[in-house]
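Structure ticket #2291
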Amino acid sequence: MNYLFLATLTSLTLTGAAMAQDRILITSEWGELTAELADNAASEALASMLPLTVEMRDHLRQEKTGNLPERLPEVERQLDFGAGTLGLWGGDDFVIYYTDGRVPQPGTVILGQVTGDVSIYDRPGPITVRIERAE
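Resolution: structure written out below.
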């Protein structure tokens, strides 16, 4: 019984440490957000590019979108997204969704999820964001 408890505790501790390594910080003149990266090859490739600066523009009053310096690997896509979803449209088009919604085929690659109030981006106009690993 004690072995099971220790194994569970060790697993939770290691999982927590791994999750902390998969956090990013997104900063701009409008505020600062933290996000947890998804567990896929595209998110890993994004993390390997950090830190980076992305010029973003408003698109369809549901998202901010901007080009990454290089394409990310193709992984499974989905059509639905929620407020705070970090996505990839095309191979290098980074997206921060600030509303819930649905996109047409082929869908969006899910890169992660913002853990703060993403509504800071719910305003018209362009914004420059800095993306880096969270401490």
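Closing remark: Residues 1-20 have pLDDT under 50 and may be disordered.
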